[in-house]
Write a structure and sequence with these properties.
heterodimer, A: mainly alpha, flat, disordered N terminus, B: alpha/beta, 6-stranded mixed beta sheet, 4-stranded antiparallel beta sheet, binds adenosine-5'-triphosphate, binds magnesium ion
């Protein structure tokens, strides 16, 4: 950004008009909204109460060991962040395996992978959250001889998000693998590497580098979709907001604060991602 | 099977291609190709675009699976179920038109990767051999560069070094200089000439007639998936027998 301001000062009329058109006004507008909301929360007791409720108490997260994070930023926000990170990490593993299965020459493996991916892509995310949390998890728990109650809604929510995003990430990994020119595989094979070695040492490192920005975008998407876990009564910020507005009827304060929280997190992440993309280029 | 293999095991025939066919659906790329290459021989294959030169070359290390026919490398029939193709490939170096260096690895790591995985050499040993090969192709100072930082000619020389570090018995080249700017062609051809003089068995698809004249023991002219004519370079270039060879050569030389 400083670079862009620099060019505005340095350049003459013609090009400076051009630079002003390219200036990220949208970012100024969004940051303006965020600062405005921040100010409201600081100064207006109604907004402040909404914020403090949604953010959650300082202390341990129900169902998890007392985490240091919650002591700082409140249980609501930390459940949102924590479930997103854990679910995304699991989704990365599922996605990598399914993506590899998707490009496998073994027709059984490939078809299992395609079935999973198409199944998930064909059903709305909200419906999948219900199906995984209320049908699949209890069925698996039953098969393992666990009682249904033993599995917290947090774990159900994380499982659902991981399974859903595993399918999205599988397509990302597949695209990444296919973006590596076929000559790379041929050169590796011609040196005597077997298919697995070539995939691991030659194709995947390049594929993953190619899809890092896409993975970042999916992480942001998952952060937003973690709000869907509110339907399972997971006490992340959307659920906290629903509880607060349900008892106080202060919808305006509640949902503006909630919007502020998501936007602050996603804008920070997407700026980080843009910076990273610029750097690798 | 024993009796079948005996003639190929004996003698100095390091590559034997017997009645090779390869089709891609309705396209017949190679149509009954047979060729025997002796140890230390340099074969140059020429022919018009689409005549099947690359496909023959790629069948020699089974990058392309023949539809029918046999390929023997040092007496081992590649089409046999019990043949470990990866072991054979480690003995057969291949150099591509587009270099195909591994973009995420330095030059040194490009050359040590297969040595360590396949030849089971430790890091130090693999790096020592890699440096030896880089000296041989004339760019030891580029060991820690990434492929994208090199010129085309340098990349191709690294690709050759990468193959040589595996101590192959055979080197295959598929138009190694076709993607290079004219001023870089010579540096790559010089490395190849050097190899040929050193006694390496080579099968080279190229349109560099100068290289063919000075290095080839035999030149194969291919058309429509088969050998039309095979002679010493002197005979084939100066006194071609077949109409198609004459036509092809006149086009090449007029260019
Ligand atoms: N993977 C493939 N799929 C389909 N057709 C192919 C494939 N590879 C080669 N062919 C076809 O087989 C024929 C022979 O191709 P090949 O690449 O061996 O020719 P070539 O002599 O190397 O030509 P060039 O001088 O253009 O490199 C061509 O008609 C080509 O289109
Ligand atoms: Mg070719």
């Amino acid at each position: 950004m400083t670079g862009e301001i620099q060019t505005i000062q340095d350049s003459r009329d013609q090009s400076s008009r051009y630079d002003l058109r390219g200036f990220p006004w949208w970012l100024i507008a969004i940051i303006g909204f965020l600062i405005f909301m921040f100010f409201l929360i600081l100064t207006n007791p109604d907004y402040r109460r909404a914020f403090e409720f949604i953010r959650g108490e300082f202390g341990g997260i129900a169902g998890f060991r007392d985490s240091g994070m919650a002591g700082f930023i409140g249980t609501g926000i930390s459940i949102t962040i924590f479930t997103t990170i854990v679910a995304f990490a699991i989704a990365l593993v599922i996605g990598l395996l399914a993506g590899l299965g998707r490009v496998s020459t073994n027709i059984i493996i490939r078809n299992i992978a395609i079935t999973y991916i198409e199944f998930i892509r064909g059903v709305p995310t909200l419906v999948l959250i219900f199906t995984v949390a209320l049908v699949i998890v209890p069925a698996v728990a039953g098969a393992l001889g666990l009682s249904n109650q033993a599995i917290s809604s947090n774990v159900r929510g994380i499982t659902a998000l991981a399974i859903i995003y595993g399918a999205f990430l599988a397509e990302v990994f597949r695209a990444g693998i296919e973006s590596v020119p076929s000559g790379q595989m041929e050169a590796a094979r011609s040196l005597g590497l077997n298919g697995g070695q070539a995939m691991r040492h030659v194709i995947l490192p390049q594929a993953i580098r190619n899809v890092l920005p896409a993975l970042g975008n999916d992480f942001i998407a998952m952060l937003k979709d973690s709000s869907l876990m509110s339907v399972l009564a997971v006490r992340e910020i959307t659920q906290m907001a629903r509880l607060y507005s349900g008892s106080t009827f202060r919808f305006r304060e509640t949902y503006l604060v909630l919007t502020f929280l998501y936007l602050a997190m996603t804008i920070a992440l997407s700026l980080l991602l843009r910076w990273y993309e610029k750097r690798i280029r | 099977m024993e009796t079948n293999m005996t003639p190929h095991v004996l003698g100095d025939d390091i590559i034997v291609i017997e009645d090779l066919y390869k089709d891609f659906g309705s396209v017949v790329a190679v149509n009954g190709f047979s060729l025997t290459v002796r140890r230390g021989e340099v074969i140059v294959i020429v022919g018009p675009s689409g005549s099947g030169k690359s496909t023959v070359l790629r069948c020699i290390n089974h990058l392309e699976m023949p539809t029918s026919g046999s390929v023997y490398i040092d007496g081992v029939r590649l089409e046999d179920k019990q043949t470990d193709i990866n072991l054979v490939r480690a003995e057969v170096g291949m150099v591509f038109q587009q270099f195909n260096l591994f973009g995420h690895l330095t030059v040194l790591d490009n050359i040590t990767l297969a040595q360590r995985l396949i030849r089971k050499r430790d890091k130090k040993e693999a790096e020592r051999i890699a440096m030896e090969q880089l000296e041989r192709v004339g760019i030891p100072e580029k060991a820690h560069a990434y492929p994208r930082q090199l010129s085309g000619g340098q990349q191709q020389r690294v690709a050759i070094a990468r193959s040589l570090a595996m101590n192959p018995k055979i080197m295959l080249f598929d138009e190694p200089t076709s993607a290079l700017d004219p001023e870089m062609i010579k540096e790559v051809l010089d490395v190849m000439l050097d190899l040929a003089r050193g006694g390496m068995t080579m099968v080279v698809v190229t349109h560099e007639m100068g290289f063919a004249r000075s290095a080839a023991d035999r030149v194969v002219f291919m058309d429509q998936g088969n050998i039309i004519e095979m002679e010493s370079p002197k005979v084939l270039f100066n006194d071609p027998k077949h109409e198609r060879t004459k036509m092809f050569l006149s086009k090449i030389i007029s260019h």
